[in-house]
Amino acid sequence: MTQITNHKYYDLEERTFLFAVRVKNFIKVLPKNMVNFEITKQLMRSAGSIGANYIEANESLSKKDFVMRTKICKKETKETRYWLRLLDCPIKNCKEKETLIQESIEFAKIFGSILEKCK
User: Fold this and answer.
1) Which of 23, 37, 73, 104 could cross-link with 47 by S-S, CB 3.0 to 4.6 Å?
2) Is the dihedral of CA 11, 12, 13, 18 positive or negative?
């Protein structure tokens, strides 16, 4: 895996996978209450879907399919950010929450850039 100077990876499949792992680990340390339970279910689905759809995009058989899958990646990224923002989070975990939100913002920009280049 290749790294660039700001420690972000060129390999977007691996980066989206590691993001989903980080979300999963973040969810494990959150308070177990009814509100967080429902939000974290949605959060884990959308966070995992980003990478899964990017893998599908890379395996697409046509440009149209690639664009559609990449649009889904961007949509799932925005949904993940929404669930992260809605989540109740103890003070000690807020830094990780903000880091995950920032990563989702970067993913949205990356997928937006990919879509722009496909036009």
Assistant:
1) 23
2) positive
Considering the domain boundaries, does residue 99 fall inside one? yes
- Cβ contacts of residue 5 below 8 Å, gap of 6+? none
Q: What is the pLDDT of residues 101-111, one digit of tens each?
A: 999 999 999 99
Residue 10 has pLDDT above 80, yes or no: no
Q: How many domains does the chain have?
A: 1
Give the per-residue pLDDT at 3. 45
Domain that holds residue 19: 12-117
Burial class (CB in 10 A: 0-12, 13-18, 19+), 104: buried
CATH code of 79's domain: 1.20.1440.60
Query: How many CA atoms does the CB half-sphere of 3 hold within 13 Å?
Result: 4
In a domain, 3, yes or no: no
pLDDT tens figures, 26-62: 999 998 888 889 999 999 999 999 999 999 999 999 9
- pTM summary value: 0.87
Residue 1 belongs to a domain: no
